[in-house]
Amino acid sequence: MHPLSTALLLTGYGLSLPIGTRLSTVVRNQHRVALLGHQLGVLIVACGWLLAGRTIVALAHALWFVLVRVWFWYGGRGSAGGTSSAIMS
Fold first, then answer.
1. More confident residue, 25 or 88
2. Which string of b and e fits 56-70 if b means at least 16 CB within 10 Å?
3. DSSP per-residue string spanning 3-58
4. Helix 55-75 with 32-51: angle, nearest 10 deg
5. Does residue 83 fall inside a structural domain?
6. Is residue 44 part of a domain?
7. Tally of structural domains, the chain
8. Which residues constitute the domain of residue 66?
9. 20 to 30 Å CA-CA from 87: which of 7, 15, 20, 69?
10. pLDDT tens, 68-82?
């Protein structure tokens, strides 16, 4: 594995995983900065996997990037009663 891809993976996972463990809270409370940090980490990881030649793994991370963005958008559209999305909670 290329040394740069290893550095990208360590950096990206180090950024995205701590936020990812609390992703339902991030979505529920609409923490945009935390979402940005998570998504930046996922993009860095995807680049690391691409550099390592693991295209399928990089595509899986890109899919996760899109799904989290949709979940965040949908999760912030609760009704006037204050209920939030039941997706992935």
1. 25
2. eebeebbebbeebee
3. HHHHHHHHHHHHHHHHHHTTHHHHHHHT-HHHHHHHHHHHHHHHHHHHHTT-HHHH
4. 170
5. no
6. yes
7. 1
8. 3-75
9. 15
10. 999 999 886 654 444
